Amino acid sequence: MRQIVLDTETTGLEVAEGHRVIEIGCVELVHRRPTGRHWHRYLKPDREVDPGALAVHGITDEFLATQPAFTDVAGDFLAFVEGAELVIHNADFDVGFLDAELAAAGIEGGIEGRCRVLDTLALARRLHPGQRNSLDALCKRYNVDNSGRDLHGALKDARILADVYLTMSGGQAALGLDAAPATGAAALAGRASRGDVKLQVVHASAVELAAHEQSLEAIDRASGGRTLFRAASSRGA
Q1: 215 and 101 share a domain?
Q2: Is 31 one of the catalytic residues?
């Protein structure tokens, strides 16, 4: 499965007021692992950045005046994201702005006609109802380093969101399931005979089984019903 973690920065908060996208950052995941590929552009918006937005991202009008327009890079952007699942925090905001840019460039069809969209804000609200679920709050909750986020940036925030999403939705990327087999002394120790040693079997309690089931349900919701543990259990049943 190919996913693109995406973030944008804009001249202001309201697309209906004519605000524009000024930065797009994308990070590629394949089978829940970062590939190292990314797509990143600053964009000339042909309007001024609101002071409130400038305070958030620090991207100035003078800098943006030297950048390409969205129409100049739209084909390259669409080629990068086409057919992928987009992972976006507060997806309605970014998708609304990107759809407006596509329409202004005369490109028919919106983002959701080309890509599936997974909203990590909606996911976080299901997993943590009644709690703060901003990107900074999720970084703190999941121990993701966001120490360089004094100012927002689309590529920087997309990389942070990728770490948050992988941890929040199960953390399989960190399990090392495709690691190379052990060699040398470690491999010999693993193959050593246990002889007549009798191992004590400790069964899970009812409370532990209930907690395990609750964790599986959370992973099920986050992965769209693709929990590997349950799939393996059903095959072995």
Answers
A1: no
A2: no
